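Let's practice the habit of predicting before peeking. Look at the sequence and jot down your guess about where helices and strands might fall. Then scroll down.
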Amino acid sequence: MIIGMISCFLLVFLWSDTTYIFNRNRSLALLILTFFLALLDCTSMVTFSHYLTRFRPEFISALFLGESLTMVIPSVLAMMQGNGQLTCVPSSNNDTTIAIYKTARFSVSVYFLCIFFILVASFIAFVLLQWTKIAQNSTQDATKKPLLSETNSENTMNIMIDSDNPIKLTPLLYILLLSGSAFTSSIIFGMVLSISAYVLMPYGHQIFYLGTILSPWMFSLVWLFGTIKPFITKRYLLLMIILGSITFSFELILAFKSPCPPLVNTMQGNILILFIWLSTILLLGYPRLVIANYVRAHSSNGMFWFGANVQFGALIGSIVAYLLVETFSLFKEQLPCEKIQC
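Done guessing? Here is the structure:
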């Protein structure tokens, strides 16, 4: 966390610096510091997921609340900054339009400084949890209370989520749940963000802007659902993953058809694509939270492997997206204000 804080603080001053290397100026400082900042992002999910096992199981939702805030707060800052807002101005020959981006309300340095303060707040919270008595009544051994009571026609069970009576999953089911966390993460963190421009931009820059701004708020809804109902039956868990996979498959088809997907330049298409885009995050994000609760209750090191599988899934999804977008160039992007006859 300290490495990430230092990297973010240095970005405040060095994000625009370039270094002449390999016969051209390159943003070497930006690349190096972003790498260390990404290193914090990747490793914190694994380490902090396991760290939360010392607290009561219901505090798992705090992990997902923090995850949602790391997306919501930067998106709010981006809206305040005016990032991505533009106007389409006719060119001199009047045959095309040119995208003119609005001047940002505050600089990139101020943006990185705000992110730095968020990391400082996270570091202070960790110090308080680790070395003060603030959380002493919230540890695993402080209290033991029922968290799950599940009843269905096939079997009836009352499960106490504590160290003396944990949930018992078969080895196969345990592996399948962890694989589910990797699969959902590969789509949410690896694929969806990578193809957003090809899915949303054909429906207009405003739809693209709304989709990217509203997406982080869906993770807050996931946290809210997880707080209200931390467990669902495995049947419904599988159903939600299947539905989320279907909506993502539809997005993938739209990306392949870019820049002329179905219902383009229609209000129905705009509403439909936003609904599908946001539904994918909800349908795959909530099962990921439920899986975390299951593996946390099953094994003392379940959250470690959950975090590891989340990062593994994100890696696989990113590699697949990179191959589709950069290596094989299977998608065609529509530029802002570009008029294409479909």
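How did you do? The chain is about 65% helix and 5% strand.
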